[in-house]
Amino acid sequence: MKVELRETPFDPLAELARYQADQQAMQGQYGATAIFIGTLRDYNEQRSVTGMTLEHYPGMTERYLQRIVAAAISQWPVLDALLIHRYGALQPNDPIVLVAVWSAHRSAAFAACRWIMEELKSKAPFWKREQTPTGPHWVTHNTPG
Amino acid sequence: MAIHIKYFASLRDRLGRAEDQLSPAGAITAGEVWAILWPETPLPSNTLIAINMEYAEPAQPVHDGDEVAFFPPVTGG
């Protein structure tokens, strides 16, 4: 299991390939990999978005991300999980979050991946501040998904 | 010793500062921390509270040396 916060842009598919190749114990064991990648759009709720600052609570954010991923691994028969989340200044098209879950069969991988994302969105202390052509504003709520 | 208070995101912007310190005379709850520091500003109803980086309720006690954070609903992912 790996949980990481990143201040700089990252390539989720390259991270995924590297992590997967490094997990010796998992080789030959996984039949399913569920992946979620969240990416910054250039619009949100009918407004154009030119950039975003993602604030977090150093210490608490890491603690909750670790706890959420560990809880998913204990709730489902999951072999391993990887979570990378950005903070700081983002541009449209920047990946915001990567969640990858490996399991023997698809059911656990899909369920755990979805659950990690929903838990993260309701519990991990992050706050989005969007830049728009009319000025910056704080995002006040999550979209229904 | 003192209680360390942090504010994040839109709440920090609205209050105009990121941190406070408080040395109360006796036992105190997280909600009372807010009420002492912001007597004219009721705690916004959707505000989340954390004590030592764990989510907490307003009635939860706060002790010397604790860190209490107040922040708006989270919007990560």
Structural features, described:
The complex is a heterodimer of chains A (145) and B (77). By secondary structure, chain A is α+β, with helices and mostly antiparallel strands. Chain A has one domain: Aldehyde Oxidoreductase, domain 3 (Alpha-Beta Complex), CATH 3.90.1170.40. In chain A, 31% of the residues lie in helices and 38% in strands. Chain A has three helices and ten strands; from the N terminus they run βαββββαβββαββ. Chain A is elongated. Chain A starts with a strand and ends in a 7-residue tail after the last strand. In chain B, 19% of the residues lie in helices and 32% in strands. Chain B contains two helices and seven strands; from the N terminus they run βαββαββββ. The longest helix of chain B is centred in the middle third of the chain and has 8 residues, at 30-37. The A-B interface holds A 38, 54-57, 59-60, 63, 85, 96-97, 117, 120-129, 138-142 and B 6, 8-10, 13, 48, 50, 53, 55, 69, 71-77.
Q: In terms of topology, how is this protein built?
A:
The complex is a heterodimer of chains A (145) and B (77).
Chain A: E1 2-6, H1 12-22, E2 32-39, E3 43-44, E4 47-48, E5 51-56, H2 60-75, E6 78-86, E7 88-90, E8 95-103, H3 106-123, E9 126-132, E10 135-138
Parallel strand pairs in A: 1-6
Antiparallel strand pairs in A: 2-8, 3-4, 5-7, 5-9, 6-8, 9-10
Chain B: E1 3-7, H1 9-15, E2 19-22, E3 28-29, H2 30-37, E4 48-51, E5 54-56, E6 61-62, E7 67-71
Parallel strand pairs in B: 1-7
Antiparallel strand pairs in B: 1-2, 3-6, 4-5, 4-7
- In the CATH scheme, what's the topology name of chain B? Ubiquitin-like (UB roll)
Beta percentage of chain B is 25-35%
What letter string, H or E per element, gives the SSE order of chain B?
A: EHEEHEEEE
Q: Fraction of residues of chain A in helices?
A: 25-40%
The CATH superfamily of chain B bears the name Beta-grasp domain
Number of domains of chain B: 1
Number-wise, the strands of chain B total 7
Biggest sheet character of chain A = 4 strands, mixed
Q: Which percent range fits the helix content of chain B?
A: 10-25%
Measure the end-to-end span of chain B. Answer: 37 Å
- Could you tell me the strand content of chain A as a percent range? 35-45%
Coarse morphology of chain A: elongated
Radius of gyration of chain B: 12 Å
Greatest contact between two chains: A-B, 27 and 17 residues
Might you state the CATH topology name of chain A? Aldehyde Oxidoreductase, domain 3
Order of helical and strand elements of chain A: EHEEEEHEEEHEE
Low-confidence stretches of chain A: none
For the terminal residues of chain A, how far apart are their CA atoms?
26 Å
